[in-house]
């Protein structure tokens, strides 16, 4: 079993001629590993290259003292710099060997979710050395938001639902962009050391741009770990934990991990974009996924409740003001 490649040509707009074909391919991938590549996805190569350049500036050129002053624990929205070893995605392993910079869409201060203090809504932290960062990241976020919304429409079609079934859940989505730097894997690392320990993603859809070094591995349904090797002009997409909740476990959110062991001692960069629906969107089994007479496998919840629980698990957070979870 391998990770399939979905060609989005003629399927990027509602009603496009290949929508049903691509939706069927998405369904097969979602019922297997929950991972797939997308090519001809509509994002200009220059946009992605610019984002990698910005990631390197933020995580190499900005002094460590400045980055540390922008640590994400200073931010009520959990945005800013993540220190090396600050996160442990696999609780049975050692702290992750990576550092990163988090940001999100710039919702205005008068947005009701910002005023309520909901997780992920609010301002970003930026170093003064990179004044172009806000505009560059917002442009990338908006481009990935468009692709995410289209993937959710294809996902709806794959479930024999109306193409616009999930559109209403995207009124004010939770959007997180993360620029990650993995140093070379330590030479003396033991078997419990990873760049990112085995984990599933928390939200709905993750869209990953990775450099050419590789290192991402996906656990397949049979238990094997398969390398998600970089493919030119392709992005990696995986389904997060909200999708099994929405589909009553018909679709999967499979574990994945990272070890930077193929870069000849150089750092590995990856840029995941996490799409989560509106904070108050209800996550419950959609029509057609629960057999007559059976109960759903998951309790309903809001998207915000689910995401807050996941942050608390790996960052040991306390509930923020205004958070109903």
Measured between the Cα atoms of the first and last residue, the distance is 39 Å
Strand count: 14
- Summed over residues and divided by their number, the pLDDT gives a mean of 92
The CATH architecture would be Sandwich
CATH level-1 class: Mainly Beta
Proportion of residues in helical segments: 25-40%
Report the β-strand fraction as a percent range: 15-25%
CATH superfamily: B-lactam Antibiotic, Isopenicillin N Synthase, Chain
Name the structural class.
alpha+beta
C-alpha geometry: globular
**Order of SSEs:** EHEHHEEHHEEEEEEHEEEEH
Q: Tell me the count of domains.
A: 1
CATH topology: Jelly Rolls
Q: Characterize the main sheet.
A: 8 strands, mixed
**Unreliable parts:** 317-325
Strand order of the largest sheet: 1-2-10-7-12-5-4-3
Radius of gyration from CA coordinates: 19 Å
Give a structural overview.
The chain is an alpha+beta fold and 325 residues long. It has one domain: Jelly Rolls (Sandwich). The chain has seven helices and 14 strands. An eight-stranded mixed beta sheet has the order 1-2-10-7-12-5-4-3. Helix 1 crosses helix 5 and helix 2 crosses helix 5. The longest helix is centred in the middle third of the chain and has 26 residues. It is globular. The N and C termini lie far apart (39 Å).
Task: Summarize, please.
The protein is an alpha+beta fold. It contains 7 helices and 14 strands. The chain starts with a strand and ends in a 10-residue tail after the last helix.
């Amino acid at each position: 079993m391998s990770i399939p490649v979905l060609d989005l040509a003629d399927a990027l707009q509602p009603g496009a001629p290949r929508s049903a074909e691509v939706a069927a391919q998405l369904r097969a991938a979602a019922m297997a590993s929950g991972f797939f590549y997308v090519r001809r996805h509509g994002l200009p190569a220059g946009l992605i290259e610019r984002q990698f350049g910005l990631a390197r500036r933020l995580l190499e050129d900005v002094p460590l003292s400045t980055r540390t002053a922008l640590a994400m624990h200073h931010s009520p929205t959990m945005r800013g710099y993540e220190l090396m070893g600050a996160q442990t995605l696999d609780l049975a392993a050692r702290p992750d060997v990576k550092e990163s910079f988090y940001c999100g869409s710039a919702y205005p201060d008068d947005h009701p979710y910002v005023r309520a203090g909901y997780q992920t809504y609010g301002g970003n932290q930026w170093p003064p050395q990179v004044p172009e960062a806000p505009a560059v990241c917002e442009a990338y976020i908006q481009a990935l938001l468009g692709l995410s919304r289209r993937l959710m429409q294809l996902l709806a079609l794959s479930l024999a639902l109306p193409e616009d079934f999930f559109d209403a859940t995207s009124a004010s989505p939770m959007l997180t962009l993360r620029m990650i730097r993995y140093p070379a894997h330590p030479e003396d690392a033991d078997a419990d050391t990873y760049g990112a320990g085995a984990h599933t993603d928390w939200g709905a859809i993750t869209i990953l741009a990775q450099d050419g070094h590789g290192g991402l591995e996906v656990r397949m349904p049979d238990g094997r770990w398969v390398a998600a090797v970089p493919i030119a002009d392709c992005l990696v997409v995986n389904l997060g934990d909200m999708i099994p909740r929405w589909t009553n476990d018909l679709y999967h959110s499979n574990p994945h991990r990272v070890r930077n062991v193929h870069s000849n001692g150089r750092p590995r960069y990856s840029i995941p974009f996490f799409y989560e629906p509106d904070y108050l969107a209800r996550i419950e089994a959609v029509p057609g996924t629960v057999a007559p007479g059976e109960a759903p496998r998951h309790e309903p919840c809001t998207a915000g409740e689910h995401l807050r629980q996941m942050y608390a698990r790996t960052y040991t957070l306390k509930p923020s003001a205004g958070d109903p979870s």
